[in-house]
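Supplementary Methods, section 5.1.

A reviewer requested that the exact input to the structure prediction be made available. We therefore reproduce it here, unchanged from the version used in the analyses.
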Amino acid sequence: MIRKYFKFFFTVYILIIPSISFSADATLFITSNIEGQFNLRSDMESDDNSVILLQSLYHLRSVNKNLLYIDMGNAFYPGTLSRYSYGSIVYDYFRMNKCDLSLVSSKDLRLGTGILKQLEKGFENKILLSANITLNKEKAFTPYIIKKIKNKIIVFVGLTSEGSTFDITDKNIADTDITPHMDTLAKILPEIENTVKPDYIILLSGLTPDKNISILSKFKSINLLISGGDSTGTLYGNSIDQIVLPDSRKILFTDRRKGYFRLDLNLGKRLEVGNFNFQKPEKWAAKDRDYKKFINRLNIWKTRYNEEMVLPFKLQKDLKADINNKKILSLMRHKFRTELAIFPGRENKNFTLNADSSSGYIRDKVNDDYYIYTYRLKGETVSRISESGNFIISGLSEGKIQGREIEENRYYTVASTQKIYEIISESEGKTVYKNRWVTISDLIINDIRNEKVSLKKDFSYLDDRFALIFTLSLSNRLSSETVRYGENIDTPSGYSTESIKVLGIEDSADIILFNRFNKITLSPYINYAEETLEDSKYYTSNEMSLKILYQYKPYMLIQPYFKSQLNTLVKEEEYKRPVDIRETAGVLFNLQYVTLKTGLGFDRRIHDDRDIPYYGLEGTVQLEFPFLNSFTYILDIDSFFTKKEMNNKYIKLEFSTGLKYSFSTYFSLSSKYKKIYYKDMELDEKYESKSYTFSLDFNIDFKVF
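The structure derived from this sequence is encoded token-by-token as follows.
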């Protein structure tokens, strides 16, 4: 570690030094992260920092003819007036005040690449700069801009931060992307050197300091690198002004302070940096025609905004409502009927609404204003992002969703903004989403005007709401079955009477209606195979069943249940279709991977032929244990012990075990061993069936509401 430190110290020098005066051939007026923040009042010239910044620009320009105005990005968002005007007011800010170039950065892209390009349409001089944003595989913006000062040709190249997030329309319809910075420079720098033949190349970068150092180390033709926009200006936790490489080339940092940076350059045999310092804007009496024109334009946009947006909500005069992350997330769950809603760990600040609040006020307070997405996340993914501590998750409490343990293989419905969706997708993989085309601020505004859900103090009702989930499993199977049974014993409904190898289907579904305390599961099942022998159809598997299970879940592991199960045939055999029913009630133990049930009830044949009910004890075990990411071990035991008379008993037992390999979200391969055992001690006979099954399974589940 010490060796690395000294190696870095002697190859890259970090300096915070006083400026040295020298004869400047060119001066750069540099802004960064102005974010379209304009005062919304009509007297903005007296206290609007953005306007005062312009006054400083005009004053400096009046005494320096070789002045270049450079913006390092994040100029268009999230300012209220800029969003309202779709960036038009900021572009006017640049165009009317002769900004030479503006680096496109991550917050600028929140407006959408299409909108930014539309702002430049019709103007010959393009000022939006980015060499690595592509649109349909072509450069979306001007990759470099050429300036000539004192017969010296200076080329400015722009690199947008690779962590930028695009509007979903840009990504899916216009195929917008960011190419790697090294690949971009390796292609564009030779082109500049061969066609433009510049005296100096200055790179404007929104990348991190370590990437900027790597760039200068590799590309010696870059004379100066100015960092800003998305770059924080910190290295190893320390704030820095500049980095000087051993060959004297520099990286200059423009941070987020509200003002401007002045940079003096000497255009000699080498590009030399003189004064570089931050300056607070000062008020000056700007008389330039373009300045006045911009102020008039600004007043028009402000008037429109105030007329349309700054209108009090029609709420009770004494109303005072605190809006926080918890309420916003609960509102998202309410509106889109999702089980979960997700924010970053620190996203929106708390704010208060009252009768004087406005939609503009809400938009200013909400930081994450991407469109809201709804999608599904697997239980194991929910557990991972919860354990990371990087997110606020509404609907998840003490590792439980609606009071129930997270099921790792089940998919849960989620609401979040595009920003969060992409953060999760980057680490967990893409999943299908639905764009709701509404932002958080829109959601709050519409809610306050209508339902007023966000004004509630208690959102526990969200966990009490009923939800409906539908799961389906379709299997094409190859079975090898061995059957033995006595002459007088009844074959259980739907089971085979012959040993045979056969292709068939085994399909099941679960329709689950549940809330925090109640769960009703309706489970239809079919197991069917047939073959033709001597022109007659022979059914080797002919089972159909329907099971209804009710569970009551108080706050404990033990849950009371009631189950009603019906077994019959898919098709009649010998003009008969026997129907067996079983009804039991008892207790259920639900652990992480295993479910145990034990209860009392009766088993009875009610059709072809009708029989008396036999009362007895039911015991079941269901185990699903995932391992090695894609494998699941399965064990299923269903038993019923009863007696006809005092000394005459019979036993029904179904035992199956197997292994499932999931090779995609919806498809899996299964291998299963199954045994059916039925013994009637009165007849002293038994029915026994053993089968080995290999199947290709299609599995899907989705939340209906």
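The first helix runs from residue 2 to 11. These observations are discussed further in the main text.
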